[in-house]
């Protein structure tokens, strides 16, 4: 038996920093990643797809988002089993029970809206643990495993949420207890555990049977999501009583959220940053967060601003990570002597230089004004 394991589509997700056409393109890429599962399924001969929670970003979605999402699922062409998660639980406002979803849901899409075993075909079951609220008070996996017999059926557990061994707060009542899961695997009650909630590709434990696929398209920066953009191709050997499992990650995501840490103290540092940004591929599908530290002259700061201004027009988004950016701007001696101005203007520049060097509340404004002056004088070109 071969199937695809995916999770955390979060269709309808927006990123607040994406502006212009970047947000619609990002949303389209998330739907395209879903539709692309159909081609992958055909290529590898997958029988069905399981989606381990958070199919949608939340339950209050625009009709267009729901309709376009269902069309993407229809395009997969094989059975797709959706598990409600913490973003889209089966509560009173559930998207899964709304009139639009129920009327337009394709025939190949099945919502796992009942806890327990669902027969896929004779001898093969999905054991589902759907969320009915955003804050369960019990381990939903332990609840569905309780009393489940080892009767020879091939079973895939589909669940959502954190696992106790990966969470610093192990007393959280909703956490999935890995010990219970591994015992069920050892006893041949279940044979593979398809988890969702963690957006980075992650194997849990040492059995090789418990996985998070991560989100198929990136949702956060690389310090949070080390390995996004994957789907898992899972093989279970039904001919063997032990049901051995093989898992192959396949990358399908096309967007990247990148963090760059750079020390910028000289014009050479700025030139190196410029080169690094220039060499990055797929700029229109790349989000860059910059953590910049260093001390610059006003001329170099103007050159840095010009560099960032240029690349902000090329990347899906580029900006500074303010919490990790610490740039000091110190006017160099003689830096403004050859601007060709005199009188009141020269006195104003001298006053701005003094304020910029003083390290007072107005220093940042003075530094920005001086940098702008140099750029206007065509001295801050990158």
TrEMBL record:
Membrane spanning stretches: none
Family of this protein: Belongs to the SbcD family.
CDD domains the record matches: MPP_Mre11_N
Gene3D superfamilies: 3.60.21.10
Name the record gives this protein: Nuclease SbcCD subunit D
Domain Calcineurin-like phosphoesterase: 1-172
The species this protein was found in: Mycobacterium gordonae
Alphabetized UniProt keyword annotations: Exonuclease, Hydrolase, Nuclease
Record's keyword annotation contains Ion transport: no
Signal peptide: none
Domain of life: Bacteria
GO MF: exonuclease activity
Pfam families membership: Metallophos (PF00149)
């Amino acid at each position: 038996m071969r199937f695809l394991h995916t999770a955390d589509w979060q269709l309808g997700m927006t990123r607040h920093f994406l502006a212009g056409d970047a947000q619609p393109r990002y949303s389209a890429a998330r739907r395209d990643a879903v539709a692309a599962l159909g081609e992958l399924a055909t290529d590898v001969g997958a029988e069905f797809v399981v989606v381990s929670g958070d199919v949608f970003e939340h339950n209050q979605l625009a009709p267009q988002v729901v309709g376009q999402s269902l069309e993407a699922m229809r395009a997969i062409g094989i059975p797709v089993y959706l598990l409600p998660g913490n973003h889209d639980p089966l509560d009173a406002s559930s998207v899964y029970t709304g009139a639009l979803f129920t009327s337009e849901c394709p025939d190949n899409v099945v919502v796992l809206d009942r806890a327990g075993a669902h027969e896929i075909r004779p001898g093969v079951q999905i054991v589902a643990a759907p969320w009915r609220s955003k804050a369960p008070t019990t381990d939903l996996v332990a609840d569905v495993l309780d009393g489940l017999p080892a009767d020879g059926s091939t079973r895939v557990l589909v669940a959502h949420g954190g696992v106790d061994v990966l969470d610093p707060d192990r007393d959280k009542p909703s956490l999935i207890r890995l010990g219970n899961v591994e015992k069920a695997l050892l006893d041949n009650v279940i044979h593979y555990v398809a988890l969702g909630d963690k957006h980075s590709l992650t194997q849990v434990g040492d059995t090789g049977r418990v996985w998070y696929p991560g989100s198929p398209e990136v949702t956060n920066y690389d310090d949070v999501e080390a390995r996004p953009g994957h789907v898992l191709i899972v093989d279970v050997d039904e001919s063997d009583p032990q049901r051995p499992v093989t898992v192959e990650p396949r990358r399908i995501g096309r967007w990247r959220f990148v963090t760059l840490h750079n020390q910028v103290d000289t014009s050479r540092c700025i030139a190196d940053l410029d080169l690094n940004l220039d060499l990055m591929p797929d700029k229109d599908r790349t989000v860059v967060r910059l953590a910049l530290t260093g001390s610059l002259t006003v001329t170099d700061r103007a050159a840095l601003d010009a560099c960032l201004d240029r690349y902000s027009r090329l990347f899906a988004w580029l900006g500074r990570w303010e919490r990790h950016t610490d740039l000091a701007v110190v006017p160099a001696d003689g830096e403004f002597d050859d601007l060709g101005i005199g009188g009141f203007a020269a006195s104003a520049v001298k006053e701005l230089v003094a304020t910029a060097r003083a390290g007072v509340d107005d220093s940042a404004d003075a530094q920005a004004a001086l940098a702008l002056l140099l750029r206007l004088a065509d001295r801050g070109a990158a």
